[in-house]
User: Fold this.
Amino acid sequence: MKNKKLIRFDWAIKKLLRDKANFDILEGLLSVLLNEDILIQQILDSESNKDDADDKHNRVDILVENSKGELVIVEVQNSKEYDYFHRILYGTSKAIAEHIGEGKPYAEVKKVISITIAYFDLGQGEDYVYHGTNTFKGIHKGDILTLASRQKELYEKEAAYEIFPEYWLLKVDKFDDQVRDKLDEWIYFLKNGEVQESFSAKGLEAASQKLDSMNLTEEEQKDYQRYLKHLRDIASINHTQMADIQKIIEESEKKVQESEKKVQESEKKVQESEKKVQESEKKVQESEKKVQESEKKAEESEKKAEKMQLHIKEQEEQKKQAILGFYQNGIPISIIASSMNLSEEEVEAIVKNLLR
Assistant:
């Protein structure tokens, strides 16, 4: 296999991998990832099976049924979504609900395997491959709940987690390009669109041959270039939005600094007022007449001090409202905290208090 640039895997899912003649590519990925020989029985309906030329989504997915009757969702996501974990949960739940016949026993619920190929930093973690399964752990004994012998016979499963959906998350951009095993060969391909000569993972030779852009028809070439332009447009929009957010943050920081300056000036005036009060009290002792005049000045100073305190409180309230506004506009708490010179706990407490 020569090192050559191949078409993107997500476009291949939309256009090429649905062809039975190309099942061997997807079977290779699934076999290496799941560590067993996977045969695709058929392609089932999924969100992106509907080929819409006006589609503006930044994700593609494919739903297949393997030879064991299991449902496998393979989804490629190109840009960040905070509720993406909820999305994959919905996807597995929807697949389960739609592929059990009416009136059928729950024992016929299909096993669902959800695989996400993410080109953004999904969640918070240092690894680039995550695997999630469902287990039941005793809160007192710490043991794992297993299937009874009869259940194992009936359902041909060895463990309870084999019944429930399982999730694979491949954070492609986190991969350091250091190939250590067969799965890394696949992830290298998913990240870089290249298959090196030394690669031998199942399915990659077929990918190298069938996903060569030189093999595309003229119409496919045009469609592929439109898809790449669409991804570039998404990246540009995201860049612009981040630049706008940065501008808002800078303006907010400037306003906060101005507010802090005013607060400092107010505090200085309060201190000066207190000093005048003390001087007035000293003069009171020297003369009854001066006492009355000093008391009057003291009352005036106290009124000024109260106004200053009220002003300070108003500034603090404005600051809190600004924090709430940023939060409701989707700015992460960590960024708000940094721009406001507060801790994340203080920001969370302010938002929680204002949203009661």
